[in-house]
Amino acid sequence: MESSEIRPERHPDSDNSTDARPRTADVRVCDVLVIGGGPAGSTASTLLARDGWNVVMLEKDAHPRFHIGESLLPQNMPILQRLGVHDAVRDCSTLKLGADFPNDDGGYEVFDFSKSFRPQPEYSFQVKRADFDKILWDNAVAAGVDGRDRTKVDRVDFGDDGAITVHAGGLRYQPRYLLDASGRDTFIGGKLGLKRKNPRHASAAIFSHYRGVQRREGRDAGNVSIYRHSHGWIWVIPLSGGVTSVGAVCFPDYLKQRKGNQEEFLMQTLMGVAELDERMEGAERVAPIHVTGNYAYECTRMHGRHWSLLGDAYSFVDPMFSSGVFLAMKSAEDCAAMVDGILRDPKREAALQRQFQRYFDRGLDEFKWFIYRFTSPTMKHLFANRRDVFGVERAVVSMLSGDVFEARPILRRLRIFRAIYAITSLGMSGRALAAWRNRRRQLGVEMREETLHGDAP
Ligand SMILES: Cc1cc2nc3c(=O)[nH]c(=O)nc-3n(C[C@H](O)[C@H](O)[C@H](O)COP(=O)(O)OP(=O)(O)OC[C@H]3O[C@@H](n4cnc5c(N)ncnc54)[C@H](O)[C@@H]3O)c2cc1C
Q1: Structural domain for 117, as ranges
Q2: CB crowding 107-144: b at 16 or more within 10 Å, else e
Q3: What is the pTM of this model?
Q4: Do residues 137 and 110 both lie within one domain?
Q5: Rounded average pLDDT over 159-184
Q6: Is 219 within a domain?
Q7: Which of 336, 362, 388 finishes a domain?
Q8: Which of 181, 225, 278, 424 has a CA between 20 and 30 Å from the CA of residue 38?
Q9: Pocket lining for ligand 1, CB < 6 angstroms
Q10: For range 220-240, the mean pLDDT
Q11: Number of neighbouring beta carbons within 10 Å of residue 323
Q12: What ligand 1 atom has the least distance to the C-alpha of 205?
């Protein structure tokens, strides 16, 4: 790791001088307790430990472990640099220089990260999450975090006086601040009834890893490819070691029609896209098939008295623009700074929390606007027939790179894109209306979240 070997001095306001010191026989006190050791949890933990706080991070699994979410964005790169893991991640990843989408001529359009509206890292990485998450976890532990894996948080009690007690692994912890980074388990959001399913985006995903999938040529070899199919969309993500992640996101009514086993269903869906059929000729599956509910949700609030929700534990948007890991790490980085401020000056807690949620939700909304419309005929038309009027196309590349926070000039151009979208929709009103009706019908069918693991080949 690049800069993680130094164990920081404890913060003078820290409650403890050693890791999770027992207060009584079985109660341990710490400054911050983090539920979950994915990208959000490890990022927040590392930064808070570097600020000198006593941090405990609890993870129910053990790294390395499989996780979905393999395509990163350019805006992830500065965060990896600040964490000191950029080079370690690079060494086990595929270089990603853009995202491609099919055009009307049977070819594809590349949104190249070098064509962004303002300067940014012109690349990103495609990662195997088992490797990526382990690097982040190890980095946190090296920074002084008391990371405990195979330790599931079972219960959290919130006292009237604001005291928080976390029960895990037969122990009780009393942190001054609690961060929930439990991902789609949404531990606190679920317990407090804050989680709201987003009715505008219900879907499920079926995916696996393959060897022998044809890659794009030259500069495009590491692109994420996104295809539409009549019941959703498909991703192709080239990973290291000649492995490719391929998955289909499907509307629930289509999944309900499933006949045959998961493998047949997945192949039938993938083969329905002519270009993908060619790219996958002779490909061999090298991992189990996973099926997971993919519906979008968000929690009604991000913070409470001495607690905050990070990454997927707060909100999940459809992953078609590969925004999840970036949003998780961005929320974690900014939240770590916020928690540092609160622990130094507890009177500012409510104000800092309000300010943070407003800031974060604004960025999130930029992704949502595009995601909700991605499968519409209008968006299909605009993505396939691009023109950089007033820098709008470069602003879309910036959005696809994650550059939506503190990005006023980009957001202004994205508003122009919205106007172009509205005008184009009017011109295509018949098709747009039919697609809208169809989409409503597809979303009308409830989807039960399930994670099934198919047979390994
Ligand atoms: C089908 C699909 C495809 C996706 N593709 C992409 C993509 O290409 N690019 C991208 O950026 N994102 C993608 N995502 C989103 C991405 O997976 C998430 O946004 C990202 O992993 C969020 O990180 P996190 O740290 O918030 O949560 P997670 O990565 O889920 O980590 C949460 C951790 O908390 C642990 N945990 C949960 N409950 C407890 C508990 N009670 N006690 C202790 N530990 C607990 C879990 O074991 C887990 O390790 C995709 C998601 C899906 C569903």
Answers
A1: 94-127+200-295+448-453
A2: ebbbbbbebbbeebbebbbbbbbebbbbbbbbbbbbbb
A3: 0.90
A4: no
A5: 96
A6: yes
A7: 362
A8: 225
A9: 35-41, 58-61, 67-72, 152-153, 181-185, 187, 205, 247, 292, 294, 311-313, 319, 322-326, 328
A10: 94
A11: 30
A12: 1
